[in-house]
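REQUEST ID: PR-0412
SUBMITTED BY: lab tech R.K.
PRIORITY: routine
TASK: structure prediction, single protein chain
INPUT:
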Amino acid sequence: MRILLTNDDGIDAEGLECLETIARTLLDDLGSSSAKRDSPNEIWIVAPATEQSGKGRGITLTEPLRVNRLGEKRFSVTGTPTDCVVLAFSDIMDGPPDLVLSGVNRGHNVGEDCSYSGTVAGALQGMALGVRSIALSQSLERFHDEVTAHWETAAHFAPGIIRKLLEQDWAPGVVMNLNFPARPIEAVKEVEVTVQGFRGIGEMHAVKRTDLRGRDYYWMSFRGAKQDHAPGTDLRAMDDGKISVTPLHIDLTHRESVHGLKGVIGGVPPKAGLG
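STATUS: complete
OUTPUT:
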């Protein structure tokens, strides 16, 4: 098996080290259970040179991308996670991978996070190129530099979950989004297959500040208000200390609205004006 690793926290992120540990454990497990391997197991790492959190499915179109080789099968790219996966497939690797793993993100990617997460985007791009892909994120008790993530939790549980997922048939266009709770290994007792939740309007906001020259600037931020999340959602799983596995897909169409609108504005275009 050939595994491509990427992330959105950057090539030097602790989460990428954790992901490499996960990939090596997975390959060791798969290798020991296989009587014959036609080709050697490989891990390729192609990750952003700097943090790209919140860049979502962004691609770099208005400036060139630079690729730096940092070691054998290890590269950094001056772009987004999507850029990294595209370059890995098209030029850096000598053939397509069998699996794309994106993460392990520092902080969970649940609810509406999924729509702007660079971690999820890396997995989505792998899926778009025809390879099964998984996003992995490690929740935090509090998002602050002084808080250390429970990387050991993701490293301990992820290989077994990924192995089980690879044994299943996936629907076309699906990526798996794995989130590990902000708890030590011994406190995690359950895996739950979840749906994507939603925190509600107003969670994200802009914090206005003024620089020393009197000019205003803004930091995008999250309110982090405590909410009672619906059972069965990825948000609730994090609250309850469970591992969340959510099948995601890129189709954003709201099917019920399609059927309802067809009888209203389908056919001949309506005329402008009232009446």
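NOTES: The CA atoms of residues 89 and 95 lie 7 Å apart.
REVIEWED BY: pending
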